[in-house]
Amino acid sequence: MRFGLTTMAAAGVLLSASAVAAQDDKDLAADSAERPVQSGSWRMSATKKGADGKPECTEVWHFNADGTGRVESGEERIDKTWRTEQKEEGTWLFTRSMASNGAPDCLGKTRDPASFPRNPSGVLLIFFNNGYAILCQPTYSRGPDGTLTPTHMFSEENCWGRLAPLEPLAHP
What we know:
The structure is a single chain. With 172 residues, the protein is of the alpha+beta class. The protein has one domain (36-165): Lipocalin (Beta Barrel), CATH 2.40.128. Helices cover 19% and strands 38% of the residues. The strands form two sheets. It has an eight-stranded antiparallel barrel. A two-stranded antiparallel ribbon has the order 8-9. The radius of gyration is 21 Å and the shape is globular. The termini are far apart.
């Protein structure tokens, strides 16, 4: 009988812990979705490595609370607008490049300042508990009715960068 009560008590603690963990995960997911909305600076590091083993490209992304921002990539400076949107597959970051100084980016490429503004583009942000995110483009599959739907499979080919806060994140 003692074994039965102890087992039941332990099971109750585990179930309660699971419920608390599930709520914490839900809160963390909600908190994670808010991260890019906060203003601040983030370092983007490409997952592709150069011959020296370091990221092929590193940039600093600045997000302003008013929806404007700037990307510093090598000598290039790109002024942007941005917003986030929660979709079925996760948190999307949409940006639109508005202007560039035309200097070489982190890969040595240049863009003609006259080609700005550009069309908006989006990237899926997948956050981890440490506050970092990876940047991915979901793959799509065509359903029997011909509609495209995003798959939830991510790989090195479609996850091309890591985003990390440069300063501690402020939590309300």
